Each structure stands twice: as C-alpha cells, then as structure tokens.
Amino acid sequence: MLGGMSRSPAVRPPGGPILQDAVTDAIRTAFFEELAEVGYGRLSLEAVARRAGSGKAAIYRRWPSKEAMTIDLITQVSIAATDTPDTGTLRGDVLAFLTAVDAALRHPLVSRILPDLFAAGVHHPNIAASLGDRVGGARREKAVNVLRRAVERGELAPGTDFELGLDLLAGPLYWSTTIRQAPADPARLERLADKVVAALAA
Amino acid sequence: MLGGMSRSPAVRPPGGPILQDAVTDAIRTAFFEELAEVGYGRLSLEAVARRAGSGKAAIYRRWPSKEAMTIDLITQVSIAATDTPDTGTLRGDVLAFLTAVDAALRHPLVSRILPDLFAAGVHHPNIAASLGDRVGGARREKAVNVLRRAVERGELAPGTDFELGLDLLAGPLYWSTTIRQAPADPARLERLADKVVAALAA
DNA sequence: CTAAGACGAGACGCAACCGTTCCGTCTCGG
DNA sequence: CCGAGACGGAACGGTTGCGTCTCGTCTTAG
Prior knowledge:
Order of helices and strands of chain A: HHHHHHHHH
DNA-binding region (chains A, B): 44-63
Number of helices of chain A: 9
Distance between the termini of chain A: 66 Å
Largest sheet of chain A: none
Number of domains of chain A: 2
Mean pLDDT of chain A: 88
Domain HTH tetR-type (chains A, B): 21-81
InterPro entries (chains A, B): DNA-bd_HTH_TetR-type_CS (IPR023772), Homeodomain-like_sf (IPR009057), HTH-type_TetR-like_transc_reg (IPR050109), HTH_TetR (IPR001647), Tet_transcr_reg_TetR-rel_C_sf (IPR036271), TetR_C (IPR011075)
Radius of gyration of chain A: 20 Å
Oligomer: homodimer
Keywords (chains A, B): DNA-binding, Transcription, Transcription regulation
CATH superfamily of the largest domain in chain A: Tetracycline Repressor, domain 2
CATH topology of the largest domain in chain A: Tetracycline Repressor, domain 2
Number of strands of chain A: 0
Protein name (chains A, B): TetR/AcrR family transcriptional regulator
Low-confidence stretches of chain A: 1-19
C-alpha cells in the first residue's frame, strides 16, 4: 500500500534530463491537468503532487522551481510537432499547415493552457523565451518552409516578407479558435486558406 | 495624517454604479497596475489596497469579489473606443482600423493585461463573457461597419463572410504585437492592410 | 453643532501553499 | 542478502491572502 512501484534510483544520468519514469509521467500529466484547470498563476506544486498521487519531494527532486518545471515540461511536449508535407501548391501547403495547427489547438488541454502560458510569458521572461524558442520555433520552421517552397515554385515573389506571412498564417486561426472560442470546421479552414493565399500573394 | 481627503458619504445612488470618486480612482488605477505586474491569477486585493493607499474595506465596500471587481472595471474602461471613420475606400478603412487597434495594443498596460484577461476568461466564464460583450463587442462593431460599408460600395461581394473577415482583421495584428511581441511600425501596418484587403476580397 | 458615514490602518481567525525534513516502506544493483 | 536511494505521506515553521471587524479620524449634510 505504501511506497512506489518502479523505483530506479539511477535510471537517468545525474544532472541530466528526466525522460521515462512512472512517477515522472504521473507528475507531468498532473501538471498539465492542473495548469488547464487553475492556470499558471494559481498553479501550486502541492496540488500537482496531490493529483499525481505523489509527495512534494518527488517534484522537488526533479525540478528546483515551478518556473523551471514549466519550462522543462512545455519544452518536452512541444518537441513533438508533425511536419507539413510538400503538397505541390501553396494553397495545399497552407491548408495542410492550418489543418495541423487547428488539430493542435483542438486538443482540450492545449486550448486551455496556451492562453495561460502566453499570459505567464508576460510576467516571466524565461517562459516567454522558452515558448518562443521551442513552441513557436517548431511551428515557425514549418511555416517558413511553406513560404520558401512557394517562392521556389514561383508562386510568391522572391522578396516576400516571411514575418508578415507568418502572422497571416497563425494569427487568424489562433484568434478565432482560442480567443473567440469558435472552433473551425474543415470548410472554414478551406475558405481561410483561400484568403491567406490571396493575402500572401498581395 | 489620518483619514481620507474627500469623503462624500452618499455621492452615488445607493446600489448604483460607482463612477467618480478620488478613492475609487486610486483603487482602479492600482488595480490595473497590479494586474499588469502579477497577472489576474496572482492579483491580491490586499496588494491593490496597499498600492492605492487605501484600506481593504474601501474595496469591499464597492465590490463583493475580485471577479466582480474585474468585470466592472474592464467594462468601464473598454467603453472608451474611438470610432473608425469612413475613409471612402476599404483599404483606407482597414488601415484606420488596424492603426486604431495597434494604438490600443501599444499602451503598455493594455499589452500586458490583455493576454492575462484572455487567460482568465478560460477559467472564469463571467470574465470571458464580459470580455466578449464589452471589449470585443465595441471593436467588433467598428470592424463590421468597415466590412458593411465595403459591401455597400461594391468593394466586397454581398455574401462576404463577416466572421472570417473579422478574424483576418484582428488576428494577425494581435498575434504579432501581443504574442510575438513585435510592435508594428506604420509601414508594416500599410503592408498588412494591403494583404488584409486582398484576403477580404478573395 | 451634531450625527452619520466613509476613511486609513491594522488586527483577527482561517486557509492555502511554500520549501524542507523526517519517517517507514519498497525495490533495486551489486 | 544488504545497502543505497527513491518512494508516499505527513508534519514543520513561515508567508500570504482571505473577508470581517474595530479602532480613531475627518468631512459633510442637515
């Protein structure tokens, strides 16, 4: 009844990252669930431990602070990002990108957590940096590839402003889905793709 | 040294809204400054009172809870929203709208507070509703007018999807300014206006 | 002049959470 | 088989915020 189930005292390299471990998994899951429920500002490590069915010490043994824990965990999770394939046309690529982003934003935990992380970034520069590098960076690279391929195909002018293009790719969907809380159906994504392509070409 | 400076025991109609009052002003200012510093989740009425140089009772005499206070104050503030004039062309109207939104987002307090309020809306439906009705509603009406006028001029097709148009008007600028933390200069707003017009027309 | 009432200040008891430190249990590597 | 070490659980003292309440002060309406 007491004690854990799979304790491997030296599973991970000392000082190195924690990757696989039943306790760590439970803590990570509890962390994100708790984050979705109360937000970053009100997140307490006590509640995370309670939800994970662990002791607080198990958390402090892994991370020195709430902020470090947050940065580490969102980094781990956001590494997973599917690549957007080359569909042969700008519109196809745009639609694929929008569909992938939409799928990510549809995840109930993601849609609740993202606004909170952005807000936390305002008050905690390290979180903002981690979000920009890891989460944004991955998505950003896919989007840049979409634009770069279009330039190579001749669908976009060589001097195209990528930064502005990225805002047009990400902004409307994030706004409607997460801020306006209006999920986008496939038909809407199609129409949005049409309009984004027109904007990119302008 | 003790006591207040302008106490009007019955300045306001009993049970009615509080509008003008030196103490109320100080509390409101302190509330937004505190909100910008620590975010909604960590906002404490104790800190607000401290910053306002008032007692906690002065706050509780006005609002029953933190949430009610937040809703009341953001409603008051967001009522102020400049109208976007009819410039005669869709592009002119779009640019005027984007410029107005950009000016609002440039305000140091607004840019720090908005992400937090959106995040708070995830966990507090009443705040989300208030944000949607009051803040969004005002801006939204201006934007709808821009699109409506364009349809009347014949610049946009009669069946234009206003909802999608609003996402294109608001999304990219909010994304770049508030999430990406990249302020937009006038030239960028011009180019964004070109692209938004192209998207709307598509 | 007086009485009413809002004011700043701050103490109250209560609850939550912090980060640390024990405890006794359990599971491994050697 | 035994020692090292992670585990859940619980308690620690300290801090912070809650919402209420009571002071003595100051202003204003009547």
